[in-house]
Amino acid sequence: MNASSFSRPGRCARCQRPVARCLCSLIPSLQATCPLLILQHHSEARHALNTGRLAYLGVQGAQLWVGEQFEDLEARLAQAQRPVLLFPGPQAQVARALAPQQRPDLIVVPDGTWRKARLILHRNPILQRLPHWVLPQGDVSRYRLRKAPDPQAVSTLEAIVRLMQLMEPERDFSALLRPFEHLIEEQIQAMGLDTYERNYPTSR
């Protein structure tokens, strides 16, 4: 299923937000050395933040596939010589800066809750054969509306930004986070600051 399958009346066809709250002016268009393939579980496609789609829109040439089992995945992986999967695993390597000729030529990122991301791996066994990468420890997630059991857990968009920053340390990919931060602030305002601070007392 392609990335445009969830367009709805009254919403921006690109960012899929209500037209009055369109995010497109905040979404950059950045080039990246490593091509990006986001495999988004279909349950994530209608999520209010949908950070996988924000990454897809902000990175030139990125692909966003929505579903659970992807028939074209094997053919897409066959086009790459050094694909990697950004997901934990027993043999996962910590991502680090590499010389240009050693960098992956495809980064595959499952997008969904941990349970749904594991389901994508289960339904697409070819992913298990890819080298697994994990991010080094970094700052706490900016996703202040989520109570994650692991303080190092980050959204899909944040993970992609951190990985790209590692791959190309001379670049600045922080502009990709602008629509994400705007959405968080919008939701905090909608719930009211008192409610936010009561439910997320350690978020600030």
TrEMBL record:
A Pfam family the protein falls into: DTW
Cell division listed as a keyword: no
InterPro entries assigned to the protein according to its UniProt record, in alphabetical order: DTW, DTWD2/TAPT
EC number(s) reported in the record: 2.5.1.25
Claim: Nucleus is one of the keywords in the record: no
Keyword annotations from UniProtKB, A to Z: S-adenosyl-L-methionine, Transferase, tRNA processing
Domain DTW intervals: 8-192
Family membership: Belongs to the TDD superfamily. DTWD2 family.
Protein name, entry field: tRNA-uridine aminocarboxypropyltransferase
Species for this entry: Alcaligenes ammonioxydans
